[in-house]
Amino acid sequence: MLGNLRALLVRPALPALVVLGLLAAGCSQLDDTSFGFWDPLWGMVFFFFWFMALWIFISCFMDIFRRNDMSGVSKGIWIVVLFVLPLLG
After folding, report:
1. What is the mean pLDDT of residues 10-34?
2. Cβ distance 82 to 60 under 8 Å?
């Protein structure tokens, strides 16, 4: 057990170095002038849109499962429709 631990600690961390190299290469592509005033604003709008869409999706699930007048089969069909309908649009 201890020998395996020593082998792991002595072995060079090649995957970590590769990931760090790729990260550094990706970050060097950024330019200071490429991040303007509107980029954070559009980022916030984009985040709000996805948060709103997720909230609506969860509330539709809650509404379906709260109903007492629907059978389990019809609830299952509605859940499948909720998953398939956005893919069609």
Report:
1. 59
2. yes
Q: What is the pLDDT of residues 19-29, one digit of tens each?
A: 566 666 655 55
* Residue whose tokens read 């990260």: 23
- d(C-alpha 35, C-alpha 77), whole Å: 46
Phi, psi of 59 (to 5 degrees): -70, -35
Domain boundary assignment for the chain: 2-27+37-88
- Cα–chain-centroid distance for residue 10? 35
Among candidates 64, 59, 66, 69, which has minimal Cα distance to 81? 64
**CA distances from residue 70 to 12, 27, 45, 67, 83 in whole angstroms, order as listed:** 60, 53, 37, 6, 19
Q: Is 33 exposed, middle or buried (0-12, 13-18, 19+ CB in 10 A)?
A: exposed
Three-state secondary-structure class, residue 35 = coil
